[in-house]
Amino acid sequence: MSRFTRRQALGTVAALGALPLIARPALASTKIRLGALRFTSHAASFVALERGYFADAGLDVELEFFQAAQPMAVAVASTDVDYAVTAISGGLISLAEKGAAKVIGGSLSEEPGIDGQKILASNDAFAAGLTDPSKLDGKSFAMTQAGSSFHYMGSKIAAEEGAELHFKPLQKVGAIIGALKTSQVDAWSIVPHIAKPLAAGGSAHIIGNVSDYLPNYQVTTVFTSTKNADQERGQTEAFLAALSKGVDDFNAALVDKTLGEDGADEMVKLIHKYVYADKSLEDATPGIVNGAMRLNKNAALNLASVTDQLDWFKSEGLVKDSIGIDTLVDQSYVDII
After folding, report:
1. Which of 6, 37, 239, 247 has minimal CB crowding within 10 Å?
2. Can you tell me the distance from the alpha carbon of 328 to that of 226, in angstroms, rounded to the nearest whole number?
3. Ordered alpha helix ranges (H), the chain
4. Is the Cβ–Cβ distance between 247 and 43 less than 8 Å?
């Protein structure tokens, strides 16, 4: 297959409308680029890098940070980034249909009993009566782009509440936060490490939980180029095995809390290098701890949730109706939940 260029990948996205694995060691110091967001939910990547798990697997990993899911999908498809962790988007699905990208695992999940993603209302909308999701009808809802996970979550919430939402694409999470703080948008859904500080600081109100509408939602996945999935199996298995060690450390420290206060403090300090790095450790700690949702052990994937997402994208006409789950997911790499 010929190299899928960034221009081709961007064109595809624009057309939307804007296990445990026993890894065969990769070649020593194989350089790879890993796409991430500066979210607590991406902590497994930070842990695997900082604690040498990638290096032990023979991988010299460089992190490249993004501000939305779809540009990350473009970067993977064009091989500017080798692997990435983020939400499924219409762009990723369409790039998979083009033979350029594959989901190879799961990452962040909603899980019963663990505080997850929140539904937020702006101060003005809350004062005007948007005090719970049943009152969303006619309101504006923020998303990065059409076909983003925010679009999916908002649509699912609205469908269950019988509401009609006006989606507002703002391209970047930072822009959405600014719009919510100034009441330029009425509502949004986001991970708790962002939602809770916004609410605690008086910038927005938490009015519901995403898990009430999408239980066991596979929020983010691990994906790579089809070339890596097909032709670099040893490297890809080594990457997943090292990442999974980071997952285990994170879950033990901040989700299951089996490592005590010292273990939790050490994990927060590590994550703080990448999340809320512009704040003091003391100020950043509550936000980091509040973002401690479950990461999937061994990069296991909730295939039912991914299938539901794919079906929604098809029903909205955001991707081709002919795309099947095997087009999107290379199941040879993953444990299926």
Report:
1. 6
2. 10
3. 6-14, 43-50, 53-56, 69-77, 90-97, 123-127, 149-161, 173-181, 192-200, 226-231, 233-250, 260-272, 281-290, 303-315, 325-328
4. no
Quickly tell me which residue has 């512009």 as its tokens: 278
The pLDDT tens digits of the residues spanning 175-194 come to 999 999 999 999 999 988 89
Backbone angles phi, psi at 304, to 5 degrees: -65, -40
Give the C-alpha separation, 144 to 175, whole Å.
9
String of DSSP letters for 23-81: PPPPSTTEEEEEEE-SSGGGHHHHHHHHTTHHHHTTEEEEEEE-SSHHHHHHHHHTTSS
Please state the pTM of the whole predicted model: 0.85
CA torsion through residues 271, 273, 278, 280, sign: positive
SS3 304: helix
What is the separation of C-alpha 223 from the centre of its chain, rounded to a whole number of angstroms? 11
- The amino acid that residue 209 corresponds to is N
